[in-house]
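re: ur question from yesterday

yeah so i grabbed the chain u mentioned. its 239 aa long if i counted rite. heres the sequnce exactly as i have it in my notes:
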Amino acid sequence: MTTPDDTVVGVDACPLGWVATVIDGDGVRMETYGEFERLRQAYAEVDRIFVDIPIGLPEDGRRQCDEDAHDLLGSRGISVFYPPCRSAAELNDYQEAKDEHQDKIGYGLSQQAHYISRKILQVADVVGKQYDGVVRESHPELCFAALNGQPIAYSKSSNWGRGLRMKLLNDELDDIKAIYQDARDKYLLKEVRRDDILDSMVLAVAAKKRNLTTVPPKPSPDEPRIYYPEFEVPLLEVK
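ran it thru and got these structure tokens back, copy pasting raw so excuse formatting
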């Protein structure tokens, strides 16, 4: 599949594999892929792909981008998973991976982070350590926070949290409720969860923005970074 270079894609991991929200000249659509490589091949000529998965794994300590994202999100910092080192990500057994990560990085490894290890390796095999190419690491909660002007206190799993995120998306995309409902009707929850739909949508919205920034703010060329839009409603600076 070839696409115009103004096409952007937001990608989130889901039980089925990967769910992608595509924004192009024809509007907005959602697709799923079993493997990240197939998704990347399908969108070989797009302008930008934002994916909620670590790109560039830790080697001798936690990644600074994760530390910064955790701090910036405040109460929603719990949504930031510290990824495993490569050797731990390659282990299937959780306890073995946890021990390996502890030995190499000096920290424990959460079950959530271990659970996405296969997805991390899929992206790593396609992207490597290219941090500023077409495929870029992002984080849905940072993107929602940017649209909201501050981190959203309510979890996506709550009615308040889901409703506020839908409102923010509705301000950015036409027919967002219809697109969301179409995805809910098309996929079982055991294939694509509600959170996966919302996250892929906001990643696509963020990828379309031109006012992007990163954590850390000024990464070195070989340092992992997480992209997100600059906050549209700046936080008050208190001195």
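noticed a couple things. The chain has a mean pLDDT of 93. also The longest strand covers residues 17-24.
anyway ttyl
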